[in-house]
Amino acid sequence: MPDGPPAPSAPTPPSTGPGAPASPARPGSRGSHGGRTQARFARWVRFALGVLAVLVGLFLALRPFSSLAVLLIAAVVGLVVAGGTQLVAAGRDGRHLRWVSGALYLAAAVVVLVWPGPTIRVLALVVGVALVVDGALDLWAGVRARGTARWNACLGGAASVLLGLVALAWPDVTLLVVGLVFGLKVVMLGARAIVAVTTGRPARAGARERARPGRWRLGGNAAVLLLAVVVAVVSVGLQRGAHRPDAFYTPPEAVPAEPGRLIRSEPFAADWVPDGVAAWRILYTTTRDDRTPAVASGLVLVPRSSVGAGAPPADVVTWAHGTTGVSPGCAPSVLESGLAAGAMFVADQVAAHGWAMVATDYVGLGTRGPHAYLVGDATARSVLDSIRAAHQLGGVALADRTVVWGHSQGGGAALWTGVLASSYAPELTLDGVAALAPAANLPELVHSLDGITGGELFAAYVAEGYTSTYPDVRFDDYVRPAARTLVREMAQRCLEDPGVLVSVLSTLVLDKPIWDGDPDRGALHDRLAQNVPSGPIDAPVLVGQGADDSLVLPAAQDAYVRARCDAGYAVDYRTYAGLNHVPLVEAGSPAMRDLFAWTGARFAGQPAADTC
Fold first, then answer.
1. What's the rounded Cα separation, in Å, for the pair 194 and 85?
2. For the chain, how many helices (H) and strands (E)?
């Protein structure tokens, strides 16, 4: 008898026929191996994209000034890599917002590539919008997340939005924004991908990889947010540091058509005004280069001994200042350093000699622009009309004896004042014209700017001044497309503005000059030649030149003086060994000692030397 129930029969092996169900994959089977291979490949792709993102981002952050072309290429690569990193991450964790972020960066790269003639402004706009939108997506993800993930998303999103807003608000600093700001954003995305791969738990077949919580990322995101705050604060500080004229410089609705009429004046006080000197800022009428009426501003400094009824009149030194910029805020009467901004460092010595000083701002500096930078007639009329207006100040005794001084831009203006005086203001008698390192040989000056450190800034002033003054000199005919936004923004900064640092840094990026070809051609050449002060000057002329001047080159000045001598004009030409452009006019310079002695001789009516 059987002593128990029959043993169950062994299970029948499953059929291997076409209709039989497939066996589940076992570890080590082909299906499991294929899943691990795909997961491993995806991890390597994400890791490689992360490394590439870090390298591209570091290049952008550390070498933003290498070249405009290189910057554009690196920015496009950075956008593509950032987009690819986000898309790969989205494929791993299934987050829809990362799909959107990845597509956004790729779309931004396409926009930069297909935009006709991509410029700095376009790059700023695209990068700025991408950073703002990506940051907003991170913030939205942070709201929906919990714990450490929430803080990471919110910190990173806030930093991205803030940096994007800086890019949009300051399109001319795209070199910094794309380089430093966007570069760090790409580095952050790449580092996130690398760490996610290297710290993630090994994936099981068919299961998603789970990253570690990521608390270590809090410090990195907090640092990026801190950097974004610093960049934003610096940007706001630079914008607030820009100088702007106040209501004094706004003319009344009814302005006299007669040039040289004093519109208004008010006492002027500043730390730099010498002791024993009374100062006023003035607003007066003049004319533009096209002979249309205009309004200019300026300063008048008079020894107190020549102020009041019965006071003895003071001889007048009329000062034409050097380059300060081409926007209204660049007037010496607006700037904190005053006349020193235009290279007048000896106002106290002028007062010590008992002389008064009349210093125009020129049209377009202080008052509404444009400013006719290095345009001879326009600046000369501003000088001559400032003398007329100063004589209308009540209670101020000014003598008829006048000597004109000028340096650099103002040196050219001083020479033009001498040329124009007899026809434009015949009632004024000039006893002398002293031009120190004058911007006289304009074609040579503009031609040499490419080889001068920081010369692009002065070239931007020339481009802005001449294209806004002469309709036949077209901006787009002379400035390269890639540099146009940069040039226009540079032209809006005064040399004394904190933001000029951005201009200086921006000039370092220019792998080519700002010019589209040789600027010494066509209408610009003709207008530059037209503004060489080559006419007769009735008063004695002194020209001083530093032998080591790196801006107004001595060879160009020699050629200008030689041309005047060949034309039969008298010139007292003096060169000073070892002196550069600005040191020539600093206190203690031998050129300044000569200038005071020469001016005193003019006021005394002594004959002038002629070195021709």
1. 10
2. 19, 9
Residues with Cβ within 8 Å of residue 436, at least 6 apart in sequence: 405, 406, 407, 408, 411, 543, 544, 545, 584, 585, 591, 595
Q: How far apart are the first and last CA of the chain?
A: 147
Q: Can you tell me the distance from the alpha carbon of 139 to that of 131, in angstroms, rounded to the nearest whole number?
A: 12
- Rounded to two decimals, what is the model's pTM? 0.75
Residue that the structure tokens 């410089």 belong to: 249
Query: Please, are residues 222 and 152 in contact by the beta-carbon 8 Å criterion?
Result: no
Element spanning 378, H or E = helix 376-390
Stretches where the chain sits below pLDDT 70 are 1-36, 38-39, 61-71, 91-96, 116-121, 170-181, 199-220, 235-242, 482, 506, 508-511
Q: How many CA atoms, within 13 angstroms, populate the side-chain half-sphere of residue 489? A: 25
User: According to the model, what pLDDT value does residue 244 have?
Assistant: 82
Host H or E run for residue 472:
none
Closest alpha carbon to 258 in 289, 293, 290, 291: 293
User: Roughly what angle, to the nearest 10 degrees, separates helices 120-144 and 68-93?
Assistant: 20
DSSP per position, 132-177: HHHHHHHHHHHHH--HHHHHHHHHHHHHHHHHHHHHHH-GGGHHHI
pLDDT, tens only, 140-182:
887 877 777 788 778 888 888 887 887 777 655 555 666 666 7
Asked if 487 contacts 514 with a C-beta cutoff of 8 angstroms, the reply is yes
- Comparing C-alpha atoms, which of 340, 373, 267, 325 is closest to residue 493? 325
User: Residue 165 corresponds to which amino acid?
Assistant: L
